[in-house]
Amino acid sequence: MANPKDRTYTRLRGRSPFLTRLANAASLWKSEDGLVLATQTAYTESYQHFRFDDLQGILIVKTRRQLWYMLIYGLFGLLGLFLAVVWEYTRMLGWIFFGAAMIAHMLNWLKGETCATYLRTAVKLQEVSCLSRLPVATAAAAEIDGWVQERQGTLRLDQLAAASTALSPSRGQGAAP
Predict the structure, then answer these.
(1) Is the residue at 155 inside a domain?
(2) Cα–Cα distances in Å, from 59 out to 20, 47, 117, 144?
(3) What is d(CA 169, CA 94) in angstroms, rounded to the nearest whole number?
(4) Is residue 131 domain-shared with residue 55, that is, in the same domain?
(5) What is the per-residue pLDDT across 108-155, written as a single tens digit (0 to 9) for each?
(6) CB-CB contact of 56 with 42 (8 Å)
(7) Bridge partners (DSSP) listed for residue 133
(8) For a designed S-S bond to 80, which of 13, 44, 56, 97 qualifies (C-beta 3.0 to 4.6 A apart)?
(9) pTM
(10) Alpha-carbon distance values, 53 to 32, 47, 61, 73, 163 (Å)
(11) First-to-last CA distance in the chain?
(12) C-alpha–C-alpha distance, residues 102 and 100, integer Å
């Protein structure tokens, strides 16, 4: 087996959400035989390797995190507007607060919908927190799907139907009614 230090790794798009990145950050890397999920916390770094031969699926689930971020940024914007309009002493601070909240609100909207992305193997379902925005996750899933199909091949519908009939018990031989 080749030395892991001799391998080449390519980083895939995606970043951990900002609030979770403060506690731990994750990144997804491609090697020649699979994916490596690198997770960094304050003092430790861990790696999980997913071989293309072992991957069974990629699951992307929409979440409402973007809506909650927009609500929080909107409330901070209203607070800044309130400080800017009501009290003369906090007018400048209020406008700065309002402007920062609206910029964060727009950036959140431009990044697209949020999602949770999972890699499925035969023994594990692992969340990939760095693929937390739907446009980035779908693009990465399409890339990963291409690499997995290169490695595993594709399964046609007629092959799947033949395999399912071969595995199902025939009637009269202990099959459930």
Answers:
(1) no
(2) 20, 20, 6, 12
(3) 72
(4) yes
(5) 899 889 999 999 988 889 999 888 899 999 999 999 988 888 888 777
(6) no
(7) 114
(8) 97
(9) 0.73
(10) 12, 18, 23, 43, 20
(11) 51
(12) 5
Looking at the structure, tell me whether residues 15 and 100 fall in a common domain: no
Helices (H), the chain: 18-23, 65-86, 91-111, 134-152, 157-167
Which residues of the chain fall below pLDDT 70? 1-6, 15-23, 163, 166-177
Do both 127 and 143 map to the same domain? yes
Q: What is the DSSP string of 99-148?
A: HHHHHHHHHHHHH--BEEEEEE-SS-EEE-TTB-BHHHHHHHHHHHHHHH
> In the prediction, which pLDDT does 135 show?
92
Residue 71 and residue 56 share a domain: no
Number of domains in the chain: 2
Q: Which SS3 state, helix, strand or coil, does residue 32 take?
A: coil
φ, ψ of residue 140 in degrees (nearest 5): -65, -40
